[in-house]
Specification:
- The protein is α/β, with parallel strands linked by helices.
- Helix content is 52%, strand content 13%.
- The chain has helices spanning 2-9, 13-21, 25-32, 38-50, 67-85, 110-126, 141-154, 169-177, 201-217, 229-241, 259-267, 283-292, 294-307, and strands spanning 54-59, 93-97, 131-133, 159-163, 182-186, 221-225, 250-254, 272-278.
- Helix 7 (141-154) links the parallel strand 3 and strand 4.
- Helix 1 runs antiparallel to helix 12 (283-292), helix 9 packs parallel to helix 10 (229-241) and helix 12 (283-292) crosses helix 13.
- It is globular.
- The two termini are 25 Å apart.
- Residues 303-308 have low confidence and may be disordered.
Length: 308
């Protein structure tokens, strides 16, 4: 399987330099990351919301190694929120953040991450929207959930992400489903050992359905993060059986993947939110998109050959 190999490459400085230097890379990256600056991304926000879609915005970057970098990440989100204020889109445009960007991996990083992300959550609330804490590798999750719990004391709309491939997630889902929180369920996009995570697609899919049933039957707000047509159909059926209205859950998909499906779901009355990333530190995000789906890798390889 190529996925684990690509995920390993996402941590390689040598591969980063090689891929970044390829002339065709920027063209392919633009499929998934439609800009590097706030000025680039505002027209994208206006275009997508004009089509009836909602967004969650991610300023790409991770593996922060200094307090100054963590502060810069905080300030990048605050600048985004300041620009979004004038668009008056309320909850149609939210934020997604990785706590590794806010200093979680620094010595004693839990407290700096909380201190840096809190102003972003507060500023988001000030323009009528919210923040979702993205899940990263399994070693960071206890800290992420603790920060999520702390933020929800003042900002109960703060969301979090859970990953179906981790063994622990069914228990996490049961706790979160009873709390009234906003929960995005994804399959998972990090290289995790067999001791903590399912390794086979079939097992991951089965876990996804079990966890999604828990979320749909619970008191929270499920966010279905998947491009898989079968899982999307199952989600609709589970929502129907749970008696949920169309505005009591939502679908989330990545910018650049299955754009026609985004529009189809929105046209049917579903809440459809597009995960839209931007920024200059795109490498790790880009590599995970390649690892998640063989079609993405084929698209990149074809582009490399045709432009070579």
């Amino acid at each position: 399987m190529l996925g684990p190999v690509i995920l390993a490459a996402s941590r390689s400085d040598r591969m980063r330099r090689l891929i970044s230097a390829a002339p065709v890379t920027r063209q392919v990256v633009d499929r998934f990351i439609p800009g590097e600056t706030v000025d680039d991304i505002v027209p994208v926000v206006e275009e997508l919301t004009g089509k009836g879609l909602e967004l969650t915005m991610d300023v790409v970057g991770e593996d922060i190694t200094t307090p100054e970098q963590a502060a810069a990440a905080r300030d990048a989100y605050l600048a985004l929120i300041d620009r979004l204020r004038a668009l008056d889109l309320g909850e149609r445009v939210e934020m997604s953040v990785k706590l590794s960007m806010f200093g979680q991996a620094l010595p004693g990083g839990h407290e700096p991450a909380l201190a840096n992300v809190r102003p972003v959550v507060e500023a988001a609330a000030g323009i009528g929207t919210t923040v979702t804490l993205d899940a990263e590798d399994h070693t960071t999750l206890d800290s992420m959930f603790a920060i999520h719990d702390e933020l929800r004391k003042d900002f109960p709309q703060t969301g979090c992400v859970i990953q179906a491939y981790l063994f622990r997630t069914e228990a996490d889902a049961r706790r979160l489903a009873a709390s009234g929180s906003r929960v995005r369920l994804v399959k998972g996009a990090y290289k995790e050992p067999a001791e903590v995570a399912y390794q086979q697609k079939r097992e991951i899919d089965k876990a996804y359905v079990r966890i999604l049933r828990t979320l749909m039957d619970g008191e929270g707000y499920p966010m279905v993060g998947s491009h898989d047509p079968r899982l999307i159909s199952i989600a609709q059926e589970l929502a129907r059986k749970a008696g949920r209205k169309l505005d009591e859950y939502e679908f989330q998909m990545l910018y650049g993947i299955r754009g026609d499906e985004h529009l189809r779901l929105a046209a049917e009355g579903h809440r459809m939110r597009v995960y839209t990333a931007y920024g200059t530190d795109w490498y790790g995000y880009f590599m995970r998109r390649l690892a998640e789906k063989p079609a993405n890798l084929r698209f990149f390889a074809r582009s490399m050959i045709s432009k070579g």
